[in-house]
Amino acid sequence: MNAWMPVLVAATLVAQAQAPASKADAAMEKRLRRDVTFLASPELKGRGNGYPELDQAARRIEGELRALGLKTQIQRFPFIAKVVRERQEAALLQGDRSRSLVWGKDLEALGLSGDASFRGKALAFLGYGVQIPGGYDDLAGLELKDRVVVIARSVPDLDAFAHLPRGERSLLARLKKLETAKVAGVIVLEENGLRPLQREEGPVKVDVPVLGMTSEALGGACGDLAARFKSIKETGKPASQDFASAPSVTLSLELKLRREEAQVPNVVAVIPGRDPKLRKEFIALGAHMDHLGMGERHSMGGAEARGQVHPGADDNASGTAMVVELARALKQARPKRSILLLHFGGEEEGLLGSQYWVQHPTHPLESVKFMLNFDMVGRLDLKAPKLMMGGLGAPKSAVEAAQKFVPKDFAVSADVGASVGGSDHMSFSQAKIPTFFFFTGIHGEYHRPTDTANLINFPGMVKLVAFGKAVSLDLANADTLPAFDPETAKLPSRGDGGPMRIAFGTIPDYADNPKGFRINGVSKGGTAETIGLQTGDILIQFGDKPVKNVYDFMGALGAFKPGDKVVIQWLRGDQPMQAEATLKGRQ
Predict the structure, then answer these.
(1) In sequence order, what DSSP letters do the residues of 407-439 get, joined into one string?
(2) CB 132 within 8 A of CB 167
(3) Residue 196, CA distances (Å) to 28, 102, 209, 289, 352 in order
(4) What's the pLDDT at 525?
(5) What are the angstrom distances between the C-alpha of 298 and each of 343, 348, 462, 494?
(6) What span, in angstroms and rounded, lies between the C-alpha atoms of 390 and 71?
């Protein structure tokens, strides 16, 4: 599952995860345990995108579906698995003093960088590379053609940038604007050290070279950078400067990158419907089978976790195995509509597999009437079991109707406007297909090497298969299906500012708590860890904002900006505690 995305309709289901009640349940639990243990085994190396082990997982899944008598296929889509330098040389000339730059120490190419070969191109400092019509403009009055421009990676929250559209805050948007201005290249100032050369999210490449450098590596080539950025923040005015003339600073660059492409699998299977007319319509069941591999990207385990297997037992071997079990159950039930079974690759790199399927559907997209997505469904808490069922693009009435299938030992609390995670259902909602999303919650092992099979609640998964089967059959056998609801499909815009501009470092517990907002863990190095918050603590006050639930907490984050000092109050058991926190921005 991706780290965070909003889902606008959610229901919290609290269950008693009991031992299997029958031989059939016992057999199902055994199969779920077998499949999750295999997928999360060290031999599969975290099922990283571009890894041959992900293909091994896909073949295993396809084999299980074929064993059920289903027609299957593997759809493949291109993925840049690795970016390497084939040729590299760089030198700064400041006045009459030349300095060779060391790759991997002083500078590094970004994965989307274009190739280049040039000598003596002048530098130009452009602050944040921001341009607001009629307002703040880092680019104003400067000759940009053939310049190597220097910009900061992230855009801070300043009053001067209040009218900067969200879409133009991203680094990619600013790079595209500079590319249009025909710059020779871009140096991106990295605030937290050089990033390794690797695939970037977004386009495969841009047409200009893009290099990461630290302020220290750049030295005094663009003057006192700290003073320049301080001036921008204090005055709200640009501090841009062209270094084409005295003091002259130029860059010479030779750079050629090679991108190694992999073909990543989606596994597709169909259970034909029994009704002669309705069998042309599909209810899609999906789960992503990829994870983080050896933690090269997106790991929350810190630098020490890189190079370690990230097993992804809950994320998302659990959902992968559950969809296989649902296939077994639904084939026996023989629904009226056909069931489309989709196991995606590429989810962890930005929903790549599901987006590719929607853009290149193996079955007519207009025939897909509803999509159910299962992501991280293996961690029903033994003490306070809970399931999140989100609806994106589904009417609230559809979420409420599904509650009639909740087992007697489940308690249900429906809500609107929850944020329970981002996953492949979003690709379908964007295609105007209503969706349900099943999710048992974030935990301290999320995106870490510790997300292992021994922590999975397999009896709980048996319960969830029964519930998923009932909801799927209700949709597959219905005379009419819920229509797409554009209101519940709306997602707040994302950018470098706005409601999610603060990175506080908590792992949320989405279950209702009468005392406040309970956390399931803290991110290493985050603000929450710094002030002493621990798993199980209950936040009750964030600055002047009372916190009663996750929505209050998210609203409080949106009321502050990076650098603000805020007093945080929480409960540890019944003991009240507090500390002052200096808030950090998202990176």
Answers:
(1) -TTEEEEEEES----B-THHHHHHTT--EEEEE
(2) no
(3) 43, 14, 16, 26, 22
(4) 81
(5) 21, 8, 30, 18
(6) 30
Please return the burial class of 233, using the count of CB atoms within 10 Å of its CB with bins 0-12, 13-18 and 19+. middle
Ranges assigned E (strand) in 422-510: 435-439, 506-508
pLDDT value, residue 47: 98
Residue whose token pair is 């871009």: 186
CA distance readout (Å), 52 to 61, 81, 227, 453, 497: 15, 11, 49, 21, 38
Burial per residue of 500-535, b for 16 or more beta-carbon CB atoms within 10 angstroms, e otherwise: bbbbbbbbbbbbebeebbbbbbbbeebbbbebebee
Task: Give the dihedral sign, CA 32/35/36/37.
Answer: positive
- As beta bridge partners, residue 124 has 149, 242
The pLDDT value given to residue 245? 84
What's the half-sphere exposure (Cβ side, CA atoms, 13 Å) at 199? 22
CA neighbor of 80 nearest in space, from 296, 271, 231, 287: 296
> What averages of pLDDT result for each successive group of 10 residues across the chain (587 residues)?
47 49 92 98 97 98 98 94 94 92 96 95 96 92 95 90 83 92 96 86 80 93 93 94 88 95 96 97 98 91 90 98 98 97 94 93 97 94 78 89 80 46 86 92 91 96 94 97 88 43 76 78 85 92 87 78 89 92 78
Do the Cβ atoms of 461 and 318 come closer than 8 Å? yes
Phi-psi sector, 166: left (phi>0), alpha (psi -120 to 50), beta: alpha
Q: What is the reported pLDDT for 493?
A: 44
Tokens describing residue 387: 């399931």
Residue 248: phi, psi to the nearest 5?
Answer: -75, 135
Q: Are 21 and 28 in contact (CB under 8 A)?
A: no
Residue 48 burial class via C-beta count within 10 angstroms: exposed 0-12, middle 13-18, buried 19 and up: buried
Place of tokens 């470092």: 505
Here the tokens at position 45 are 């190396």
Q: Which helix (H) or strand (E) holds 340?
A: strand 338-344
Per-position DSSP letters for 379-409, written without gaps between them: ---SSS--EEEEEESS-HHHHHHHGGGS-TT
Whether a cis peptide bond, with omega within 30° of 0, leads into 316 is: yes
* Tokens coding 417: 């406007």
Q: Which residues of 304-331 are buried (b: 16+ CB within 10 A; e: fewer)?
A: ebeebbbbbbbbbbbbbbbbbbbbbbbb
Contacts of residue 547, Cβ cutoff 8 Å, sequence gap at least 6: 516, 517, 539, 540, 541, 553, 556
* Beta-sheet strands, E only, within 272-314: 282-288
Contact between 101 and 108 (Cβ < 8 Å):
no
